Automatic annotation (TrEMBL):
Organism field: Gordonia caeni
Protein name: HAD family hydrolase
InterPro entries: HAD-like_sf, HAD-SF_hydro_IA, HAD_sf, PGP-like_dom2
Pfam families per record: Hydrolase
The entry's keywords: Hydrolase
Any GO molecular function: hydrolase activity
Gene3D superfamilies: HAD superfamily/HAD-like, Putative phosphatase, domain 2
Length: 230
């Protein structure tokens, strides 16, 4: 499928969720702050930004390191369960959309371009948010606990491209964080970055936009081409 101006559109669009489609990062901040306080420290801005977009193990490790929790005291399973319970409760209240995300989802769907949701969030939490977005928008959803290693490793994007039946370079990832952008880069997926809370450094196969609001199919095709797409 081609845009009217000529550049090709991607064979599939691989959407990040937290901070890209939904403004969930402030909700995760609440849970992370509670985790830090349980271990006797306050969540500094530096630590918060370091954990942004991380999978659960990486985020917990960074908090444990900051709190100087000894290896023998690092109960990843129990702490993750506590965080999951906390976040599920917060997600159940309200999940606000990021500007332009809903409209771009509808626009891409109308163009009959397959979309997949690619999130580091584990399945039991993600499913609550996916209900808000509507799972019917996506060919598939891939969560961080369904691959060997979550973002920033490439596994989750490689799996999404495989499900889409497309070469990674023929897809476009839409991300907001350094962690997610790094995962897309490692997988060889051209990446549109719309930063939410933290700046993302320029890199190969990476283009930027301040917001998804007002984005047209022609512009999407141009951004995909600029990111090194087919």
């Amino acid at each position: 499928m081609t845009a009217m101006s000529g550049p090709l559109l991607p064979a599939a669009v691989l959407w990040d969720m937290d901070g890209t489609i939904l403004d969930t990062e402030p909700i995760w901040d609440i849970a992370m702050e509670a985790l830090a306080r349980r271990h006797g420290i306050e969540m500094t801005e530096e630590l918060r930004l370091a954990t942004l977009g991380n999978n659960a193990v990486d985020a917990l490790t960074k908090v444990f390191d900051a709190a100087r929790v000894p290896e023998s005291g690092r109960d990843f399973e129990a702490e993750e369960a506590t965080m999951v319970e906390h976040v599920i409760g917060l997600f159940a209240r309200e999940l606000p959309w990021r500007p332009g995300a809903r409209e771009l989802l509808d626009l891409i769907a109308a163009a009959e371009i397959p979309m997949l949701l690619v999130t580091n969030t584990q399945r039991d939490i993600a499913d609550i948010a996916i209900t808000t977005i509507d799972s019917g928008r996506f060919v598939a959803t891939v969560c961080g606990d369904e691959v060997a290693v979550g973002k920033p490793a490439p596994d989750i994007y490689l799996r999404a491209a495989e499900i889409a039946g497309a070469h990674p370079n023929d897809c476009l990832a839409i991300e907001d964080s350094p962690t997610g952008a790094a995962a897309a880069h490692a997988a060889g997926v051209p990446n549109l970055v719309v930063p939410s809370q933290i700046a993302v450094r320029p890199a190969g196969k990476r283009v930027f936009r301040d917001t998804l609001a007002g984005l047209t199919l022609d512009e999407l095709a141009g951004l995909y081409a600029a990111a090194g797409g087919r």
